[in-house]
Amino acid sequence: MPEPQSAPAPTLRDVVTLLERVYDPAWAEPWDAVGLVCGDPDEPVRTVAFAVDPVAAVVDEAIERGADLLVTHHPLFLRGVHGVPATDFKGRLVHKLIRGGVALFTAHTNADSADPGVSDAFAQALGVRDLVPLDARAGNPELGIGRVGELPEAEPLAAFARRVAAALPATSGGVRVAGDLERPVRRIAVCGGAGDTFFGAARKAGADVYVTADLRHHPASEALEAGGPALVDVAHWASEWPWLEHAAGTLRSTLGAAGTNVETYVSTLVTDPWTAHVAAG
């Protein structure tokens, strides 16, 4: 009996076409840089790695694990460049990727706005359901930054903060909370990544608590003084990490339905830049 034939590997062009269908580059913010950074579109792709940050450890892992494509949320380049010599860390990474046969693709604010996108995965990890965009895009109420939804039942803010800490990968910064810890919360707003420009949207949506990352002193203080909602601040990397498995699953299932096949893995390397926390006092 002949052995069954395995599904053929897609080309990089096939994978990029699919990714850009799910995370349309047109949804990216004007300042963003998304899409294919390096790689030959005609090369086959058998293994795809997913990570938040295109940093050296992640690239080394992709090469060691035989990945043909690395998909990251954060861009390697946000500003225009005139060359990629290996005289700085970004140039060295490009050279390392090319020598290792690993293409690099970025889905950033287009993945933030997608449905489902980064904040859907974040909210679902917290058990929040019935999601709608926090800041909807004009002309399409399903797309937009952030999500708002409901917990099955109200719970004290302190319990909700513990829920957040348990749902996300551990980081040295942990979870910070602003608000009355006994206050019951049920309507939840989330924004993966830095979200302190959406305090007004969270308040308008009637959120009891807003969960995001990179909150600064003055915006957070002013948001509380303006009437809330309560705030939960997490590490930027941790807030976006749940999306990786969603994106990997979408890629596998869509390619499988088309008769091609890839293996995927989600990097568990903690690329949050903060490595230690020392309590004051």
Please tell me about this protein's structure.
The structure is a single chain. The protein has ten helices and eleven strands. It is of the alpha/beta class and 281 residues long. It folds into two domains: 12-111 and 241-265, Udp-n-acetylmuramoylalanyl-d-glutamate--2,6- Diaminopimelate Ligase, Chain: A, domain 1, CATH 3.40.1390.30; 115-234, NIF3 (NGG1p interacting factor 3)-like (Udp-n-acetylmuramoylalanyl-d-glutamate--2,6- Diaminopimelate Ligase, Chain: A, domain 1). A six-stranded mixed β-sheet has the order 5-6-8-9-10-7. α2 packs parallel to α3 (89-99) and α5 (118-125) packs across α10. The chain is globular. The mean pLDDT is 94. InterPro entries: DUF34/NIF3 (IPR002678), DUF34/NIF3_sf (IPR036069). Homohexamer. It comes from Catenulispora subtropica.
Quick structural gist:
By secondary structure, this protein is an alpha/beta fold.
Please write out the topology:
Blueprint: H1 12-22, E1 35-38, E2 47-51, H2 56-64, E3 69-72, H3 89-99, E4 103-106, H4 109-113, H5 118-125, E5 129-137, E6 140-156, H6 157-167, E7 176-178, E8 184-194, H7 199-204, E9 209-213, H8 217-225, E10 230-234, H9 236-240, H10 242-257, E11 263-266
Parallel strand pairs: 2-3, 2-11, 3-4, 8-9, 9-10
Antiparallel strand pairs: 1-4, 5-6, 6-8, 7-10
Helix pairs in contact: 2-3, 5-10
